[in-house]
Design a protein that fits this description.
89 residues, 3 helices
Length: 89
């Protein structure tokens, strides 16, 4: 796993991560509603953690997801799985 950058993120970076978390919450609600199954509140409670980790701290290129240089994301919060799937978009 790559180390978190030492510098404090800029206000615009924090705002972008918060927006990603907000969208993850919305997509989690939409996907679990459409499926008629799932745990949207568990997904929503993990949205900021997932957004901060996946979109800021991790080294990951969506265009090359199988790169050997990419970090791997493993979440042991099974009921929040829908939120992590939306995060991969």
């Amino acid at each position: 796993m790559s180390a978190t950058p030492a510098a404090t993120p800029s206000a615009s970076t924090v705002a972008a991560i918060k927006e990603k978390a907000r969208l993850l919450s919305i997509y989690s609600m939409m996907s679990t509603t459409a499926a008629g199954s799932g745990h949207p509140t568990s997904c929503m409670s993990a949205a900021e953690l997932v957004a901060g980790t996946f979109f800021y701290a991790m080294k990951f290129d969506p265009k090359n997801p199988n790169s050997p240089d990419a970090d791997r994301f493993v979440l042991s919060k099974g009921h929040a799985a829908a939120g992590t799937v939306c995060g991969a978009r």
